[in-house]
Design goal:
five-stranded mixed beta sheet; single chain; Nucleotidyltransferase, domain 5; 10 helices
Length: 295
């Protein structure tokens, strides 16, 4: 049996699966927004599962951010109370065993590669398009981490070939750089671009609800898919994955899948494009299931 923990900013979710991936139980608790509270929350889930099902074979935790290759401390986490902390070491002390700790986008990619939309594919690029934009790379069902432990962080590459119009109607990224993909294709980025252009104050759901009745919404969604294709073309030109699996809240927009693959063909440097962009299978469970598959 395997335990997976998805450590989010607002909720911490745990799942127990057997070695074939069958879900045995799950639990969700509110994340305490402090370091010790977060540790204790994870411990409580593990203790509850093992009290009912016995000692598990492995424990995996998916988290926002990454672990520094130099210091072994958490970095780049939007749950800021984790940054600078030895999370892996602390969990292993508290639980008295090895803990596999990974970026949550990597866990999503692993889940979809093992028994999701990318099953059977050698190279899977898992994409998160939600409140933020992230990604993970899985090769032969193993996460590719990279020398700096930032593989798949395509949300902070610049949108290719930005027009003056696209430069004008976008906010600067929180990372202080200009033109990041996250500022165009995250949920907040999508709505921000729309609102700046139309002097409005709508969230992404309200904009999408207007499709296809209002021309502004149609244009916004067409532009969104084009932005997504342009950003993914950079990844395809470098990584050349077998499949790209979309996750996160924005991945639920059905319109994306009607045209994303045709749009992507326009920007990738090849005569015939075999890589397909598809929706995930496991939905919100992707991260927690991927954490359980860590080994």
């Amino acid at each position: 049996m395997k335990i997976g923990i998805d450590l989010g900013g607002t909720k911490t979710e745990g799942i127990l699966i057997d070695n074939d991936g069958k879900e045995l139980t799950r639990k969700r608790i509110k994340t305490k927004k402090n370091y010790e509270g977060t540790i204790n929350g994870i411990k409580s889930i593990v203790n509850e599962f093992e009290s009912h099902f016995g000692v598990v074979d492995s424990i995996g935790v998916g988290m926002p951010g990454a672990v520094s290759a130099d210091s072994a401390l958490v970095k780049n986490a939007n749950s800021i109370w984790l940054n600078g902390q030895p999370l892996k070491k602390k969990l292993e002390e508290v639980l008295s065993r090895r803990v596999n700790l990974e970026n949550d986008a990597n866990c999503f990619a692993l889940s979809e590669a093992v028994d999701g939309a990318g099953q059977g594919q050698a190279v899977v690029f898992g994409v998160i398009i939600g409140t933020g934009v992230g990604g993970g790379i899985v090769v032969n069902q193993k996460i590719l981490q990279g020398r700096n432990n930032i593989c798949g962080e395509w949300g902070h590459i610049a949108l290719p070939n930005r027009t003056q119009d696209e430069i004008k109607y976008v906010n600067k990224c929180y990372c202080t750089r200009a033109g990041c993909m996250e500022t165009y294709i995250s949920g907040p980025g999508f709505s921000s671009c729309y609102n700046l252009r139309h002097n409005a104050n709508l969230d992404s759901h309200e904009i999408i609800e207007k499709y296809p009745k209002e021309e502004d919404s149609v244009r916004a969604l067409n532009l969104y898919v084009d932005h997504l294709a342009r950003g993914l073309s950079v990844v395809v030109n470098i990584l050349d994955p077998d499949i790209i699996v979309l996750g996160g809240g924005m991945s639920n927009i059905g319109y994306i899948y009607e045209s994303i693959n045709e749009n992507l063909k326009k920007y990738v440097f090849t005569d015939k494009l075999h890589t397909k962009v598809v929706k995930n299978i496991h939905g919100d469970s992707g991260g927690v299931r991927g954490a359980a598959w860590l080994s």
